[in-house]
Every structure is written in structure tokens, then in C-alpha cells.
Amino acid sequence: MPKxxxxxxxxxxxxxxxxxVLVTLNHYLVNGELGRAGQIxxxxxxxxxxxxxxxxxLYKRVVNENLHEYERLKKDKRSLEDNITEAFQYIxxxxxxLEEIRSVFSGENKYPESRSQFKVILKFLSxxxxxxxxxxxxxxxxxxxxxxxxxxxxxxxxxxxxVAPFPNADIGCHNIINGKLPIGVTAIYSSKxxxxxxxxxxxxxxxxxxxxxxxxxxxxxxxxxxxxxYVRSGNTDRREIK
Length: 242
Fold this sequence. Notes:
Structural class: alpha+beta
Low-confidence stretches: none
Number of helices: 5
Largest sheet: 4 strands, antiparallel
């Protein structure tokens, strides 16, 4: 309760008590004694003041309930404003992601016919993974399953950020194929398993949401399609892209 209201409340109680005492003892102070009429007047006066006090306490209870409700509504209002702000931020972020998704599937209208063209696509898709997420680095790999070797690889960092470098030395092809990754690294594999090669996207662990994982998986599947087209358009010795 504000200090000025509390002061007025205390002043009211003090004046109420003082007035009650003066009115109650008025007949005695004037006549020096309480007759029958004075006693009746005293009882009625005390009764009226008692009723007034009960009404005051009931009124105060209602006021306190209204104040509590007011504070609750203020908190709800702040919460709703925060939720609306977060919703608009999320919608804005989602619109950006939708634009990035659209660019993934429409940015490259030409299928790769050479190593240089495929490297451009590999770099393009790696950058799109960074654009759709908040991670510091990403690594796209194409692995030959039978020979357990890397056919193509692209590592990209966010800007010049090298605070959390990609732990390339700790991740071998055999470990990637079998899902044995070091702590802090998550692998997202392509949906199809042809038994010949595997497409994998390595990202920092626990830094990617379920929604982002779905988007990254779509990019990995897109890369798999590009690689299949690239391999089948030429000789088998073109599989390795270095």
C-alpha cells in the first residue's frame, strides 16, 4: 500500500477512536452522571460505532482483494507483453529461416558437372547451415563406406570465429560411420542409406534445436541428391572431390 494511503488510514482510525470515546462519554461529561437515557444512548452509540467498524474492516478487505487483483493483472499484462514480444521475435526469425530454406532449394538451379561446381555447392550448403542455426562451425562430409575415406569435405566457421574450432583430429571416418563421436559434437546423417557412401553434417553438440535439426537434415539430403547426380553424370573415378 502507498505511504500516503497508509497515513490516511491511520489518521482515520485515530479520529474514529477519538470520536467514539468523546461521543460515548458526552452525556457523562455534560451531566456528571449517566441516567437511564444516558445508558441507552451509550449502548446505541457503541453499537453504531461497532457497526461502522465492521463495515470499515469489510471495506478494507475488499480494497485489499482489489489491490491484489490489480497487482496480478499488472503481472499478467507484463507477461503477455513479454510473450507477444517473444512471439514477434520468433516470427521474424522464422521468416528469415524460411527465406534461407527457399534459397537452399532455389539458389542452385544448375546441377554440378565438375569438381569446381560441386565445391561451390558444398560451400553454399555449409553457409546455409550456419545461416539457419546459431552454431560457430559446421562440417559437411561425404564418406566412402567401403573404403572408409573422405570423398569430400567442407568446414565453415561463423565469420572469423575460431573460439570453438572444429575438432577434426578427434573424428575419424570409422567413428563417424559408427556414430562414435567425441563429446560436444553432433552428427546429422542423410536419410537414405545406399551402402556406398554416407553424407554427414557435424555440428557442435547441444547447440541445435529439434526444428533446426530438421532443416539441417533437409540440407544434407539436398547434398546427397547433388552428389548422386554428380557421380552418375561422369566416370566413377570422379567420386572423390579434393
